[in-house]
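Hi R.,

Here's the chain you asked about this morning:
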Amino acid sequence: MTLNDYLYYFILPVLSVAEILVLVRFIKGPSIIDRVIALDLMITIGIGIISIYSIINNQPTFLDIAMILALIAFLSTVAFSYYLEKRKKDD
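And here is the predicted structure, written out as C-alpha cells:
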C-alpha cells in the first residue's frame, strides 16, 4: 500500500465523514458559539482536505491556499472571541 492509496482509501473518507458530522453540528447548534466553533472546525478539516489533494496531485500551490485559509480562520476566531469578551464586559 503506497502513500497515495492510504490517502485515497483511508484519510479522505475519514475527513469526509468528519466534515458531514461537523456540518450537522453547525446546522443544529443550539447557540451561536457552537456554530462558530463548528465553522472553525469545518475550515480546519477543509484545510486538511486541500493539503491531501496537494500531496496526491503534486501541486504545492494548494498548500499556499491552505495557509491563507488557515490565517483567515484564525483571525475570524480571534475577532469573534474579542466580540464575546467585549459583550460580557458590557453586561
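One quick note: The radius of gyration is 16 Å.

Cheers,
M.
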